[in-house]
UniProtKB/TrEMBL annotation:
Keyword terms, alphabetized: DNA-binding, Phosphoprotein
Keyword Hydrolase: no
Signal peptide residues on this chain, from the entry's feature table: none
Protein name: Two-component system-Response regulator
InterPro entries according to UniProt: CheY-like_superfamily, NreC/VraR/RcsB-like_REC, Sig_transdc_resp-reg_C-effctor, Sig_transdc_resp-reg_receiver, Tscrpt_reg_LuxR_C, WalR-like, WH-like_DNA-bd_sf
Domain Response regulatory, residue spans: 10-126
SMART domains for the chain: HTH_LUXR (SM00421), REC (SM00448)
Amino acid sequence: MISPTNQRTRTLLVDDHPVFLDGLTSILKDCDEIEILNTVTSAEEALQYLENESLGLVITDINLPGMNGIELIKKIKEINPNLPVLVLSMFLGRELVKEILSVETEGYLSKKINKVELFDAVKKIIHGGTYYSNEITSVMMDLISKKKSGRTLLKHELTHREREILQLICQEYSSKEIASKLFISVTTVDSHRRSMFKKTGAKSVIRLIRYAVENNLVMW
């Protein structure tokens, strides 16, 4: 258990419904790996808060007054490309999922999820992974598979170990979880990840996953 406050991931919650924010804050207090620094009800407040605080995670809704959640995520990624964002939303439509893919959000969950899945998502994301609920993943895979890449990556361009790791990345395993599963060090996993980024031209985990699906490099 992570007890010292300064070891927890500093987190900002964004939602325009104060009652939902209160409930989410209460639930996340039981997650010992994050610290809720503040809650805000608009994208503008969130960006203002980011100017003065160093954060490790932003959890936001998409349907916000004024600037919407998609625009907020774009701004966050401009300010700090390495700051992970988890979307919690009631909206799961194809067009919205497409927009979420375009801004490379680390996670996307329905507000109907249970506490266990929420904690699982948060922990995976803060440890360098991604997390999309099953209903979101199915829409994502459908969208990606219908937009095939113009170039097919030859299998010999990735090593056997890289393909193993790529499969696990697409299944939302973090580097730590992959290392444990394959009995290798986290450093080795990260080295393979860097190699795959270089070979595929991907700049983020989301783009790496998209590339893998477009080129039929993973099984679902």
